[in-house]
């Protein structure tokens, strides 16, 4: 399960949804639909992590910015 923050927006210039993963430098994906963009981002995140591991680079721990609400 991917736990990194995703920033998703529509790009008129690209005519596509763009997904940026701020915690992973240069990690971006796109798609014609919101769902396609997120699915592509999940693939790119995994590839980013695999490439970092293969090159001996550190992999950032997800910041988990969402706060749980306690009752």
From TrEMBL:
This chain belongs to the protein called HicB-like antitoxin of toxin-antitoxin system domain-containing protein
**HicB-like antitoxin of toxin-antitoxin system domain location, by residue?**
6-63
- Report the source organism: Aphanothece hegewaldii CCALA 016
Task: Kindly name one Pfam family recorded for this protein.
Answer: HicB_lk_antitox
């Amino acid at each position: 399960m991917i736990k990194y923050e995703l920033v998703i927006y529509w790009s008129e210039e690209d005519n596509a949804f763009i997904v940026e993963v701020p915690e992973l430098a240069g990690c971006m994906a796109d798609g014609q639909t919101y769902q396609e963009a997120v699915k592509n981002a999940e693939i790119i995140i995994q590839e980013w992590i695999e490439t970092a591991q293969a090159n001996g680079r550190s992999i950032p721990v997800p910041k988990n910015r969402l706060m749980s609400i306690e009752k």
